């Protein structure tokens, strides 16, 4: 039984590492900030989530399993919040930029 | 006035219960003094924060008490969506073919909690990211955009998650 769990955990670790590597490549390949955030979320959520699943499979006792489940729940709440804050900041600063440039155009037309 | 007080009392009780359960899970200790201490601390924190934790305008218990089986179903659906869209983003990274667009659509979920969780689930899956949530209006950045039509985009991004969420909360 333990060996099956270890093999499944190994598969999850490999998947997580592969996603992390591709996310890192994407971070440098994409040009605009939103696409970079998407590649970053590949690292930040899929890879970490795979690791957490692997750790859940490897956990030795019921108490640590319960704690891993709490960790996963908190990760589900906190991971999107972080990237959402960054995305929202870009969105609002672009908004302000647009408004400023349109105001400049109006100034020139006057 | 009386119904408002009852409602406040219910919200206070639910907050205390939630905090107490979290305390038990985190301390993993069923000793008498640990439980007593946790209970009084939860009472104290709940009395200070229940009006933020469960706002008064959420006028239905189903707005924040989930149905357990639907919650598990939503969780499984979300993990499946996470891996499916991760593979799509991996393909996009390797080939370099992306079509990033900003799309707008509406959600028919009614409670604040369900809407926030929908926005978080959209951000959680790679390839889509919530920029803004105004009442029922979502602004989403979509990496592999196939349509900017509001209904079709909403269909592609959120409909399955929204159905599962609509069964969990109201």
From TrEMBL, chain B:
<feature type="transmembrane region" description="Helical">
    <location>
        <begin position="32"/>
        <end position="53"/>
    </location>
</feature>
<dbReference type="GO" id="GO:0008324">
    <property type="term" value="F:monoatomic cation transmembrane transporter activity"/>
</dbReference>
<keyword id="KW-0472">Membrane</keyword>
<keyword id="KW-1003">Cell membrane</keyword>
<dbReference type="GO" id="GO:0005886">
    <property type="term" value="C:plasma membrane"/>
</dbReference>
<feature type="transmembrane region" description="Helical">
    <location>
        <begin position="7"/>
        <end position="26"/>
    </location>
</feature>
<dbReference type="Pfam" id="PF01899">
    <property type="entry name" value="MNHE"/>
</dbReference>
<keyword id="KW-0812">Transmembrane</keyword>
<keyword id="KW-1133">Transmembrane helix</keyword>
<protein>
    <recommendedName>
        <fullName>Na(+)/H(+) antiporter subunit E1</fullName>
    </recommendedName>
</protein>
<feature type="transmembrane region" description="Helical">
    <location>
        <begin position="74"/>
        <end position="94"/>
    </location>
</feature>
<dbReference type="InterPro" id="IPR002758">
    <property type="entry name" value="Cation_antiport_E"/>
</dbReference>
